Amino acid sequence: MALQETAPTEEPIAFPFPPPSSLYEPSPEYAELRDRRPVTQVTLPDGKTAWLVTGHAEARQVMIDPRFSRKAASGPDTPKLGLAAADDSILGMDPPEHTRLRRLVASAFTARRVEELRPRVAKLVDELLDRVETLPRPVDLVENFSLPLPVQVICELLGVPATDRHVFHAWSDAVMNDWRADPAKSKEAIEELSRYFARLIAAKRAEPADDLMTALIAARDRDDKLSEHELVQLGLGLLIAGHETTANQINMFLLTLLRYPDELARLRTTPDDIPRAVEELMRFVQLGQGGGGLLRVTLEEVELGGVRLPAGAAVLPALLAANRDPRAFDQPDRLDLSRADNPHLGFGAGVHHCLGAQLARMELQEALRGLLRRLPGVRVTVPDSELRFKSGMTLRSLEALPVTW
């Protein structure tokens, strides 16, 4: 393949794209670019340019190739697309610093450890649905199920009081921002969360417990494996990542299944297929609008998708487009809960592959299993047009999801 010149042959395209007309399909611009030029220069809201990557193979290369740096993306001159806490957390690091911190917490998220947690998560699902069944209908699924489930799980794992969930979730919303958000509010939320974790760490030092935060404090105090700042930021990142995405996925999974009643009916009759269904929903569901990947910066000249990118180029993998790439998936725009070959990028790839992927998978499986078993006729009581999403967020975060059954 002949390489294109570094300078684009066409004018950069404005990004992010306008919102799509449907909650269930990506903006049509993604497919047009993926088919024509999967590595395309775009202009971002701050006026800076970046290279948008819409192909599956190309997006995966960005995430696994060490020449694409997350640390370099935190520089003052790089574009900012949101997620205020990312640059100052493990998400903003490259190896070996990233490897050191990731190793400290990886043991809590192994497949074996997650399976040990499954009975507890299944019990939480049942307890939440017990309460849901007693409430007057319609019931807000966000407030009463999809948010409290992952919050309770990550709080128990970290040793955070679940009674604080409304407080830290409000801060979390401000941190999980997009380019439209007020940077001052995001900065204030990060500072509040940091102070919250500093208080929690002090309490855990005074009264150690059998939880992940106590173990991390020991790694800090006894083994000197991380700084106090890293300890705070690691706890903050785990708390946000451990509940925000999963809660929104539960909501969007249910909406998507109701949109495709034949697939939902088939899943009801074959609940053993739920693990495979979760993988397909991870691929198919439109959780965000801005592409879904974290910005990287090239450390040297790199060829990507037939384009020669210079050192210092900002590169944005569009995972929601990559997950619909016909070069990687048969009939990619079809929801197929029996899909066997599914190399989706919903959890990322490479060194920044989602640390809690196994935990998220298990929680989503148990949430779906509980909803299908306990609320067999579940339906949303308002049309899609009346659903309200929080503004200025990187994820589609519903304010409420009224359901009956």
Automatic annotation (TrEMBL):
Keywords: Heme, Iron, Metal-binding, Monooxygenase, Oxidoreductase. Residues 1-29 are annotated as: Disordered. The keyword Cytoplasm does not apply. GO terms for biological process: antibiotic biosynthetic process. One of its GO terms (molecular function) is heme binding. PROSITE patterns: CYTOCHROME_P450. It holds the Pfam family p450. Coiled coil: none annotated. Belongs to the cytochrome P450 family. This is Cytochrome P450. It comes from Planosporangium mesophilum.
